[in-house]
Design brief:
186 residues, single chain, alpha+beta, 4 helices, five-stranded antiparallel beta sheet
């Protein structure tokens, strides 16, 4: 038997049927799916050095299980004391099984470790069916060693779906188990 991540198995066995039932799709191909998860972490340029960049890349790589890359600034910005070609952020794009494994760890391990957690914001959709989740501290992931962590950066996690409507994407992420805020738990 082949290995299948838990959210992927859940999607194939239960979520597709629930989405077809709720939105009356005529074909299985119309059912929205999670295409990719993009994790982006901005780096403070004022404390920039190669060691900071390498530590941040190693941390994101440990969290996601996939090598992260850094993004360079495209032009000089004197207001930010930024030179062209300076690394300003780190990103990693997750697809297929690695994406589902990260989603499982995020929902079941990392988000419950957030202090005073009541759910994620349900209004962070972009109008095209994509959801953005901001995390202020990376130490919620158990892969991060807090003793050796010098700079604690936050990150932005973008869930890209094949849906063009926020309502469908929200229901898809809800069925995956993403805990949205409700009036009861606020």
């Amino acid at each position: 038997m082949n290995y299948c991540p838990r959210p992927k198995y859940l999607y194939k066995k239960k979520i597709i049927n629930k989405l077809i039932e709720k939105f009356n799709y005529k074909s299985v191909m119309q059912v929205p799916k999670l295409k990719k998860i993009v994790i982006n972490q901005g780096i403070n340029v004022l404390i920039y050095d190669n060691k900071t960049i390498n530590n941040a890349i190693n941390n994101i790589t440990a969290i996601t299980g996939q090598k992260a890359i850094y993004c360079l600034s495209k032009r000089d910005e004197s207001g930010f004391k930024l030179r062209k070609g300076t690394p300003i952020s780190i990103k990693v794009t997750l697809r297929r099984d690695i994406m589902y494994e990260f989603l499982d760890r995020l929902i079941n391990i990392a988000l419950p470790r957030v202090r005073d957690f009541v759910g994620v914001n349900k209004n962070s959709f972009d109008g095209e069916g994509n959801y953005n989740l901001g995390i202020s501290e990376q130490i919620i992931f158990p892969e991060i060693n807090t003793d050796s962590l010098k700079n604690n950066f936050g990150m932005n996690i973008t869930f890209v779906t094949s849906s063009k409507k926020n309502k469908e994407a929200k229901y898809l992420l809800y069925l995956f188990g993403l805990p949205f805020k409700t009036k009861k738990n606020v």
